[in-house]
Specification:
Length: 377
């Protein structure tokens, strides 16, 4: 089967995914918070970034290779973390890690994934990142870092843009709670999606295994929060300093939007800044990441990673042209996985690669470093 004939774009994978997973799972994956204006803003502001097409430049060979943390990648793209990934598709974390290993790109595991770092160890490639929701307890913090390092995770990502739980109204309306409770409404949706249901039956109802190990007997959550909220704290600068002292690999801070924070983060010994608004899932009055990017770039020479709203190879080009060094995509790879199973992530990667090659040819860019000069300003 020629997957490009049936699924030539991420939008096709998204439509297929919606038909393959229960509605309450779809709402969890696809939704944002509030009226979803930040989610829409991410898309609209990306569309505003334009390039000048090039003519009479002759035949050129376009290279989409990029470097980060001393490693080379075929595309400047990685798989971003999504909590409860295994709810979206059975064994999602393992399948995505295996795909990243085949493709030679980073894979980032969430603290609130359905697998522990030890579960993931046999599936990891050379570019495994661990995303940390910051535990308040120092002993838990140390143990979590040690387990991530021992399992093969080389890069630590501290998420700083979730000081409190968001409301995520679409998720509430869907009937999904954390952990999931199987009401008759949800059971009817599961029965209508047999491939998903059989996979879940084979591997068991997903749960946050790492968090559960630390959070027995904790109470006091609302229906859209999870046990991770009882473990975590809202970190401050001293917390970041502690992490820098206790982690000997690359340290990334995820959730940066204000340019004035960049110099202080650089001074604190951070190795890269991850510009993110949590894909609109946390705060509905945040700027789009692509509009925040240039001012942050002007404040630091650190590598900049960007997510939130990225859907195409052209979007990746837009981010790099405005100063990003690398891009991460969460929803997209999960749409692909839900649509096509294990084949999905590889197919999405090929879509992105072909899109970048085609669009770089249109603007006459031979290398990613040529992109800024092609911008229409």
């Amino acid at each position: 089967m020629d997957l490009h004939a049936s699924y030539p774009a991420l939008s096709d994978l998204r439509q297929k995914a919606q038909k393959r997973i229960p509605k309450f799972v779809w709402e969890y994956l696809d939704s944002a918070t509030g009226d979803e204006r930040t989610k829409a803003r991410n898309r609209a502001k990306l569309d505003d970034v334009l390039f000048w097409p090039s003519i009479l430049h002759g035949e050129i060979t376009c290279s989409s290779e990029a470097s980060l943390f001393g490693s080379d990648f075929p595309l400047p793209i990685g798989i971003a973390p999504i909590g409860m990934s295994g709810l979206i598709w059975p064994q999602a974390e393992q399948l995505l890690a295996q795909a990243s290993k085949r493709l030679g790109i980073p894979y980032c595991l969430s603290t609130v994934a359905t697998q522990t770092p030890e579960d993931m160890a046999p599936h990891l490639g050379d570019h495994a990142w661990f995303q940390m929701y910051p535990p308040h307890d120092t002993d838990i913090r140390k143990d979590m870092l040690n387990r991530a390092k021992a399992s093969g995770f080389s890069t630590l990502v501290l998420t700083v843009d979730v000081p409190v739980a968001s409301r995520r109204e679409r998720q509430v309306r869907s009937g999904l709670t954390t952990p999931p409770r199987l009401s008759p409404r949800l059971l009817a949706q599961i029965i209508a999606r047999p491939a998903w249901a059989l996979g879940i039956a084979r591997h068991g109802m997903p749960r946050m295994r790492l968090v559960d190990e630390y959070s027995e007997n904790l109470t006091g959550l609302n229906s859209t929060a999870h046990a991770g909220y009882l473990l975590r704290t809202s970190p401050d600068w001293s917390y970041l300093g502690w992490l820098r002292d206790h982690w000997d690999g690359p340290l990334v801070v995820k959730g940066v939007l204000r340019p004035e924070n960049a110099p202080r983060l650089e001074k604190a010994g951070v190795d890269a800044l991850w510009i993110s608004n949590h894909a609109g899932r946390q705060f509905d009055a945040a700027p789009a990441t692509i509009e925040a990017l240039p001012a942050i770039r002007a404040q630091t020479d650190l590598p900049l990673i960007l997510d939130s709203g990225i859907e195409t190879g052209l979007d990746i080009m837009r981010a790099l042209a405005l100063g990003a060094d690398f891009v991460m995509m969460g929803r997209g790879f999960h749409y692909a996985l839900a649509a096509l199973g294990a084949k999905g992530p590889d197919h999405l990667f090929d879509i992105l690669f072909q899109d970048i090659q085609a669009n770089m040819g249109q603007i006459g860019a031979q290398n990613l470093s040529d992109l800024p000069s092609c911008l229409k300003t």
